[in-house]
Amino acid sequence: MTIKYKNLNDMPRTAGQVFLMPSKTQQHLSNDADINAIVARFRKTGFLSNVNPRSPRFADVSLIGDFRTTQDRIFSIQNEFASLPSSIRTRFNNDVAELIDFIADKNNTQEAIELGIIPKPVQPGAIVSPAPVAPIPPAE
Fold this sequence. Notes:
Layout: H1 30-33, H2 35-45, H3 67-82, H4 86-91, H5 96-104, H6 109-115
């Protein structure tokens, strides 16, 4: 009894996957992506046309946080804005950015307090009484 092993020659040949829709690949850009064409163009002209003309910039973005944290913060601010009364949202043209710009301007602090957007600041030395707490009934 002999053992027959399968190999690639025994496998049925298929055409692979057939795509019926027209290709979305833009063939007219092939020379801009072909490294051989780019190097040949550089040898001929001495100029690299596919290099970004802007100078690099350094920015310290360590205080911004990672992408997920920033997205969560934006989502939270949008939810808080949506929970404001419609009259206040209308005042800022239903635009969160307008509200943030308004609050960031120190000249608008009094109006923001009147609108109830930010709490009234506590005066230094003022005695703040805690909110009354209902007594706990004795256990029986």
